[in-house]
Write a structure and sequence with these properties.
The chain contains no helices and 14 strands. It is an all-beta fold. The two termini are 29 Å apart.
Length: 236
């Protein structure tokens, strides 16, 4: 799921819920992003999850909190293209023994590119690298993601907007014996409010290779662009 917005330098709060079929857990993320200046944005991502223990009990915990800064590199209304870069520091706030964190600070940087296509279609691309400060606890890794979609409007553009898309994801840990993991993620986003400032997205992440050890994931998120109004505004 295209979690890192390519070009939106706006103010919003996003709640993402991800369920992993075949695993005893449901990780959840709350992300807050706020623009400052003409092309800068700061981000805080707060993960937490609940897991089902072998003894039959449930327990929860906070994961590794991420602090990020995004910078707009260029954008063009004429060509419909935009490029941004982001750096993050992922802090070891989660309990590694309980499976809620890596136990090490990780620095992450990535670049994101978006391109508008004819007939309300779009293409997005993202590539980045993860650099832990202690490779004995976590491996360095690279990843890249590509998404293609199209927006469909109801009510002459004044009603609900549906955006089906498909995303191809790949990641690889930079360690001996590791291989590239490929996933396919069909999904769609829909606006819930008439003002279109509250949206929902649901998708299914399907492993393309090594699917015996990597289960299918059902993913869901809510996005509230509160710059355009409160939760109870813009529904009529």
């Amino acid at each position: 799921m295209f979690l890192k917005s390519v070009g939106d330098m706006r103010t919003f709060t996003k709640v993402e819920l991800a369920r992993c079929n075949g695993r005893n857990g449901a990780p959840t993320f709350i992300a807050y992003e706020r623009r400052f200046g003409a092309g800068n944005q700061r981000e805080v991502s707060f993960p937490f999850s609940f897991q089902h223990h072998d003894t039959g009990t449930w327990f929860g915990g906070v994961g590794d909190i991420a602090l990020g800064y995004k910078r707009l590199v260029f954008s063009s209304l004429r060509t419909g293209s935009i490029l941004s870069v982001q750096g993050e520091a992922i802090l070891p706030t989660g309990n590694r023994a309980g499976g809620f964190g890596t136990g090490v600070t990780v620095f992450e940087t990535f670049a994101s590119y978006g391109q508008l296509l004819p007939d309300k279609s779009f293409l997005q691309f993202q590539s980045g690298v993860e650099l832990p400060t202690d490779t004995a606890k976590a491996n360095r890794a690279v990843y890249w993601r590509t998404a293609f979609g199209k927006s469909l409007n109801q009510g002459m553009g004044l009603g609900r907007m549906w955006t089906p898309m498909v995303e191809l994801l790949a990641d690889r840990e930079l360690a001996t014996g590791e291989k590239t993991n490929w996933d396919l993620l069909p999904q769609f986003q829909v606006t819930l409010s008439r003002r279109q400032h509250i949206r929902a997205n649901v998708g299914v992440r399907v492993p393309v290779n090594d699917f015996g050890s990597r289960p299918m994931q059902v993913m869901f998120y809510l996005l509230w662009d509160w710059f355009d109004g409160g939760l109870l505004e813009g529904w009529k």
